[in-house]
Structure formats: C-alpha cells, structure tokens
Amino acid sequence: MVASKKNLKATKKFEQKHLKGVLERRKVTAKIKQKQQIKDKTKSKRSQDDEFFKGPGGDAEKKVVSKKPGAKASEMSVDDFFQGGFEIIDKAEPTASKPKSQEKTKAAAKLGKRKRGEANAQEDRSDGSDSEPEISGDDAPMGSDSGSDISEDDLGMSKSAMEALAENDPEFYKFLKENDPEALDFDENADLAEIDELSGSDAEEDEEAQPKKKQKKAKKAKEDDRELTQATVAKWKALMTETHSLRAARNVVIAFRCAAHLNESDDENPQRYSITDPNVFHDILVVALKQIPEVLQHHVPVKESAAGKVYIQTEGKKFKTLSMLIKSFAASIIRLLGTLSDDATLKLTLSALQPLLPYLLSFRKVLKMLIKTVVAFWCQPASTETARITAFLVLRRLTVIGDKAVREAVLKAAYQGLVQGSRLTNANTIQGINLMKNSAAELWGLDQALGYTTAFASIRQLAIHLRNSIVNNKNDSFRAVYNWQYVHSLDFWSCVLAEHCSPLKEAEAGKESQLKLLIYPLVQVTLGAMRLIPTALYFPLRFQLVRSLLRLSRATDTYIPLAPALLEVLASAEMKKPPKSSTLKPLDFATAYKAPKSYLRTRVYQDGVGDQVVELLAEFLVLWSRSVAFPEFALPVVISLKRWLKESRKKGTGNKNGKLGSALVLLVQKMEMNAKFIEDRRAKVEFAPKNRAQVDAFLKDLEWEKTPLGAFVVSQRTLRAEKHKVMEEARKEEDRKRAEAEEEDLEAREGDESEGASELEEEEEDDEEEEEDE
After folding, report:
1. Residues forming beta bridges with residue 602, ordered by sequence position
2. What predicted TM-score, i.e. pTM, was given to this entire model?
3. What is the pLDDT of residue 773?
4. CA atoms within 13 A on the CB side of 295
5. In angstroms, what CA-CA distances link 186 with 114, 157, 189, 367, 414?
C-alpha cells in the first residue's frame, strides 16, 4: 500500500516536471526519423532512376572522383569522363617502360567493334576490357546524364585518339591504314550504335553490303561527311515501312538531327550527313516525322486503357537501347520547331509529337523542354490558328496520359503562357487570345481535383494583387490590377468555371463539380477590381469584367448583382453633363480597358458608353426573364432608369443626348412588358412561394427568346453583329490600304537610294575622267 502511494506520488511529480519535455523530445525524434525515411526513399528513387538512365553500376562509377588532368579513365567519375570530349584519357606511356606490343594492344582496344586483323584479334579481346569509350558531348541526347547504356564494343574510335595513335605509334597506324582503314573512321553518332544489334531484319541488307565493303573502306578514309540523296532516304523509308528496320530508323534519326541543325556544322563538330538539296530536306523531315513513331510502335507497342492511361514495357533492354533514339529524335524535333515558319510543316512537326508522347513520359528533362516549346507556339500572337490548335492537342494529349506531376506542369505552363500571350491585346490579337482561353479551359476539367488546386492558387494570387492595390493606394499601385493580363486572367477563370460548373455538365458527370466552390471568390475579386478606380477613364475595363460575370452567371445559373455596377456608370458625371462634339472615331470597347483622355466628355464616347450600358443591362435582365420573381427583380432598375431620364430632360443641366435617351426608354418598355408577361403567367399557378421545386420549374419549358425581353435582346444581337461585321471589313480595308502605302513608300525610298547611288557613281566616273585628263 505504501509502495503504491510512493509510485503514484512519483508519477505525479514526473508529470509535473518532466512529462512535457519528454513528449517534446519524442516529437522531435519522430520528426527526425520521418525526415530520414523521406530522405532514404528519395535516395532510393534517385538510385533507381540513375540505374534506369545509366545502366547497372552507374552509382559505383560516380563514387570514384578524380579531377587531375592526368587521371586514368578507370579512376574518373562518369561526369568528369564525359566533360573531356574527344580528349585522350589513357595516354600511352613511354616505350621504354612498356613493350611496344602492349601499346599496340591498348591502342587497338579503343577501336570499338570494328573489323580487326586476324593476327591481332585475340590480343585485342584480352586487353579491351580495361579501356574506356569516348563520346562527344554534343552527341549525348538531351535529358540523359551519360551514355552508359552503350557498350564499349559499339563505339568507334575518336578523332583525337586516331591522331594520337598516328603520332605515338606510326608503324601500327600504318599497319591499320593498309589492312583495316575502316577501323580508323571515328563515329560521331556512337550513341545510337547499339540499336543495330536489335535490328534482326537487317541481315539481308548486311549480306548485300558485303561485296561493296572494300570500295567503301577506301572512300570512308578520305570523307568526313556524306551527301544525303533522295535515293538513300527512299531506301530507308522502304526498309522502315516493310520490315520496321531499326538500323534504317537509326540512320533516319541521325539524318533528321543533321537537318534540324542545318548550317551549324563546323570542323570541331562535323555533321554525319550534309544536306544541300531542299527536296532531300523535305523528304527526310516527312519520313522521320511519319515513320519513326510507327517503328517505335512496332518494337515497343503502347497499350492504352479505356480511361486514356498508357503503358509501355520500359524494363526490357530494347526500350533502354531505344531510349537513346527516342531522346535524340525528340531533341531534334524541339530544335527544329525553333526554326520553322511554314504553317504546313509546323503542323506536321507538332502532330508528330502526339504518338511520341507516351515514350517521353520516362524522360522528364526532355518532357519539360517539350512542354515549354509547345506552349510557346500555342500562346504566340504570331502563330496561326492551325498551329495553335495543333499545339493545344499535344498539350491535351499529354494531360490525359500523364501522371499528376505532368498534368500539373502542363496546367501551370498553359496558364503562364496565356498570361504572357495576352500582354498585347488589339484587334489583330483578340481572336487568338479568345481561342487560347476557350481551349485552355478544357484542360482544367480533365482532372478537377488538380484543376481546383491550381485555379484556387491563381485566384488567390489575383486577390492578393487587388488587396495590395487597395491597401497601398498610392504611386500608381492600381496598375498591378488595371492591365490586360489581370483582366484576361479573371476572364479566363470565368471561362473555366462556366465550362465545368454548368448544370448540364454536372448532370452528365453525375456529381457536383469541385470547381463550383471557386465561383464565390472569383465573383468577389472581379467586383472589387471593377470598382477599384470608378472613374470614366476605366469604364471599358468595367464593361470587360461585367461580360465575364455575365458568362459565368449564364452558364451556372448563379445570380450575380450586376445592375448596380451598370447603374453607377449612368449616375457618373460623365453621363449626366451634356457632351461636346468631336471628330474622333468610335472607341472599340472589345479591345480597350482604358479610354484615352481625349475621349472624355465627348459625344462619341458618351454614345459608346450608353450603348454598352443598354446592351449589358438587357443581357443581365434577360437571364432572369422567365423567373417567377422578375417583376420584383426588375422594379429597382426601372425606377432608376426613369429617374435618370427625368433628370436628363431638365433644362440647362440635363444630358441632351437623344440617342441614349431613346435606347433607355425602349429598354424600360421591354422590361415592363416582360414584367406584365410574368405576372399574367404566375396568376394562374397554384403553388406557394415556399414550394421551391415548383418555383424553380416555373416557365422552364418556355424558351427565353419567346419572352418580350428575350425577343428584344435577340434583335439587338443581330443588329450588333451586322454593325460589327461592317466595322471589321472597314478595319481590314484600312489595314490593307496602310500596308500598300507603306510598300509604296518603301519602294520610293529604295528608288531614291538607287538613283542617289547611280548619281554618285556618275560623279565618281567624271572625277576619274578629269584626273586622267589632267
């Protein structure tokens, strides 16, 4: 009993003095263990990736580090080894220390898998295991850390090794030149050599090539490159079509790489093939872009599930060997895309990426650069509509088949590209920007969980910019909000939510969209942005944002109070005072977020603002033209408009703009007619207002175009479409005339320069004649 009391007392004392510290130490220890476990998992994953990219034993090679210039290849790390380029790593030692025959053996071991003399065959095999292959850094495919998948027997002799052999051992060099000149031909495309071993269908080609080998040996000793011909390309095409030859595919990839780096060859980095004929260039591009994916599909088929997920057997030796070809081909396509300007060739090149995407999922570095390149074409204002659509199809395909990390990378790159591509907005670029917004909105619905997180982060960032502009209201801080990129960002997110949160889409999916939770924050940010600077100078921006919210309200059946924002425009000083006449052109509100100061207080600007207010008010009210509560809903708007019309008729102070007054009177009449129409219909119903289902179903079967206000809106849309068409044609005609005038000015300027040059030549000739006479 006494012992138990002592234990209880000791326990309480421990809890009071030491328990808190013990628990904290345990938490710290648990966190350290957790971090260590995560670190071990990361290290294990990296080792697996290194083994995948570099082959077995890659990590063991990295452990040996030597930066001494005289270090042997066996003592160097993989990174140090590949930084050496064509430099000879294991230099031959003086002849006094080693027998001459041993030097010959080590030099011959570097020749790779070439035909050697029968007398030295056994000696080459015995000593070849100690030599290290040499690969040019320029030939290493993009995204790979080393060429460890290539066996040393498949590598040719480097150029520097050949020169060193001629200098250190001229007798052996002469022997090789007489008996095996092919052995001295260094191979700058050694990274694709192992593919030849997998091509079992090339036996007949090798047999046909045997009688001609002696003739080729003499030519190869003198030639640094080969002229590519259409016959050669046609031969490769036939081999890939009939037998899916990997050797032909390897040659096509090498030639395609030469075409992608055309006119970039020099003495240090010579190209394997030279291409001078435009027809050959076209043929090799078409053959590579169309046939290489077919060959890859034959040897490493892509399996796709019903959900769109793809699977490729990446564990076998064939894929590891073909990975060199895939990465080299993808890198060449990326390089080629930066040089193309023809629309048809650009479309073909971008289309060729789609069947290649499943193979590139394993190579994240190449994939990252590919996404960046494709997004650049998708968002460039100079790109044609065909190029934009083709680039978007590549991004969509990558989003469907990729994992979460790939999808997130595509979404972030697409949003950044959209923001950058919308910096310049005018009549020529607005169509391409709208195409980007409408196409990119589809990507956020492919994975709504990921789409929600990325959209939430972007909308939150927009809200932070708005808050900073409100809090720090000085030194033009509002310009962080009042710019095209901010406006297009808000409009884009309204496109995304309108696309995926509509009742029809939710009915098809059978569940409520996760993105629906973002409607409220987006509406609040947009309403705050449009009221940040409530001056007449930024009325166009207000109209831009009202259109975004109208789209969102129409698609999601969400009520957004937009009438007050429009009535504030009518109540402004700009619209109350009489306008002054002006000869300015009408302002295009579709491509402007800020009005020039010269437009303020002018009749042309007031007419344009009045048209926008009438149009947007009608579009807003027609959304609820079938609602059972429309009479009560429209009453405040009718009262406000009638009050404004009454004040505008006052003598001396009112607005004498008869065009605006007539438009508002007509709108008020249509609203009253629609309210009377709804009152007549709801007088016949038998349900009470608390019956929510019946209230929502009121006039749902009636098309909104058949209501009085709906018929008015339809007629106004038709008139605006015709007016816009006429204005667009006039703008194009004006652009055409301006271009012709610029061409004429350029021709006249060139003519004046040529005349001046001819006069100068005549003066020089006269001076020469005078000097001769003297």
Report:
1. 580
2. 0.69
3. 63
4. 33
5. 11, 4, 9, 31, 44
